[in-house]
Amino acid sequence: MLKFIGKGVYSAIAIGKVSVLQKSYTDTTRLKADDKNGEISRLEKAKNEAIAQLQKIYEKALADAGEESAQIFDIHLMMIDDEDYNDAIRDMIEEGFSAEYAVAETGKSFAATFSGMDDEYMRERAADVKDISNRIISCLKGEATENTDSGNDLIICAEDLSPSETMSFDKSKIAAFVTAYGSVNSHTAILARSMGIPAIIGIGRDFLSAVKNGDTAIVDGGTGELVVTPDKETLITMREKQQAEIKEKSLIEENRGKENITIDGTKIDIFANIGNPENVKNALLYDAGGIGLFRSEFIYLDRSSYPTEEEQFEIYRQVLSEMGDKKVVIRTLDIGSDKSSDYLDIPKEENPALGLRAIRLCLARPEIFKTQLRALFRASVCGNLAIMFPMISSVNELIEAKRICDKVKNELDEKNIPYDKNTEIGIMIETPAAAVISDELAKHCDFFSIGTNDLTQYTTACDRQNPYLDKFSDTENTAILRLIEYTAKSAHDNGIWVGICGELAADTSLTEKFLKIGIDELSVTPSFVLKVRDKVRKIKLEG
Amino acid sequence: MKSFQYVITDEMGLHARPAGLLAKEAKNHDSEISITKGDKTVSCTRLMAIMGMCVKKGDTVTITINGGDEEAVYTAMKNFFSENL
Fold this sequence. Notes:
The complex is a heterodimer of chains A (about 550) and B (about 80).
Chain A: E1 2-5, E2 7-8, E3 13-20, H1 36-65, H2 67-79, H3 83-94, H4 99-115, H5 120-141, E4 154-158, H6 163-168, E5 174-179, H7 187-195, E6 199-201, H8 207-210, E7 216-220, E8 225-228, H9 232-255, E9 269-274, H10 280-285, E10 291-295, H11 309-323, E11 327-331, H12 359-364, H13 366-379, E12 384-389, H14 395-414, E13 424-429, H15 432-436, H16 438-441, E14 447-450, H17 452-460, H18 478-493, E15 497-500, H19 511-517, E16 521-524, H20 529-536
Parallel strand pairs in A: 3-4, 4-5, 5-6, 9-10, 9-16, 10-11, 11-12, 12-13, 13-14, 14-15, 15-16
Antiparallel strand pairs in A: 1-8, 2-6, 3-7, 7-8
Helix pairs in contact in A: 1-2, 1-5, 3-4, 4-5, 11-13, 13-14
Chain B: E1 2-7, H1 16-27, E2 32-37, E3 40-43, H2 47-52, E4 60-66, H3 70-84
Antiparallel strand pairs in B: 1-4, 2-3, 2-4
């Protein structure tokens, strides 16, 4: 068993048989030719043949990989007719060189010009020049350019693959591509991606001497790992991983774009939890109905001074506009002495979970809080924003936090800065105190989101970080469910919505219970959205 | 002779596809059309030479048209650049 690492292109696992691509066309031994006119007409004939082939490949690419990928071959068709390129070839033939040699040398010299440019895109064009040159040479020699590899699940191994080589294989027989060279932006990478074939590129020259035709190999397009002649154990593990991936993909395909609705018609929102703006694309990929929890902490951590209002505004604006009209619940700063940066200067505490953290820190230092709120309200016009305060444990805290919001709004009004006046203000229910007085809190806010991780820790008095306490911190604990039930009732009695954004929200053994309680929204890690949807769609609440 | 200046707005600059379209377009007209960036000028019918100029987003290029149908070609080229680049 041998392992090689390169850059993975399309995240999927392929298990198949190695097929090493032999290239013969670089060999242009016939240097000189006396019959100049004869060579010119040979060249013309070969060029026309090459153009006809390219037109066919263009059609195939259009069908197999889509219009954007097919454009590559449209460009090849234009390049093959380039004046300078054709003039250079003819000049060499006039000097007495063979057509093959003239094309090979001209191709090399044009490719070298592109390779020398200080622009990555233009450097990649060197591959295009080589590709069209090799095609003409093959036509001159009368070589077949179609690949006639037999068998299925082939893992094509090559030093490099030109775009047209990549395209020339029968898609149904190919399991993966592995090349020694190339970049993730190369045509081969782009084509493999658009055809949905896993590929590893830039794996290095050595792998070619380790593979031979017919070897069993595993390509992991996610990790970029190639395993040649895997042992039994590896083969079994990777087969399982492959099956799990296929299952997940079909789950995505089956549930994408569908409603979160039970068999008997009860609906629920399924949103995503994210920790930074890059996660938005995952939320959309997994078809989340909104962002139920955007943790704003990352903006404050790993840096040496406070983030400015502008910096924050830009991040919130980006997330809100990417999500369009979908709701985005942004939680205000939730840090304390356990999760902090030096510049924040939070005194060391004996018991940080019960310390100066989250909304307590914000109320103690209203300037930090106001900067964040200003950035949030200013961004509110860019999408569908809801603001959420963490760690509320009394009505007074909520009233005080809202008073600061009003101050910020008044200041924006004075400066004529627009903001969405209907921005929802909600709170996390994550202390037992908040759950118990949720009937009172509901009168002062627009929504609740139950943070089950902290709620469990505080209710059961079990430290979340302590592994020895797992069996004592039973998440299905009746106490927690009663608090959730009471919180939901308080919300609905007061006409506000209630969601769950802790880990419990993704626990599908509790989904039916949450639906019965009347939870309006579940917010989970993006990759869990469709699993929860799948569960919801299989539930029947009545009877 | 007529000419105009154009600032490239396409993210990828004057890349292969628009360069190819430009070459095709230029071959359709009688007038000679050339593109200048800095001190380098090439005929617009020469695809690889245009690509070789490595025209990027934000670069200013000058398009010069010379010939009998230059009035019509001038308008056609202006439209071509604003549509494709």
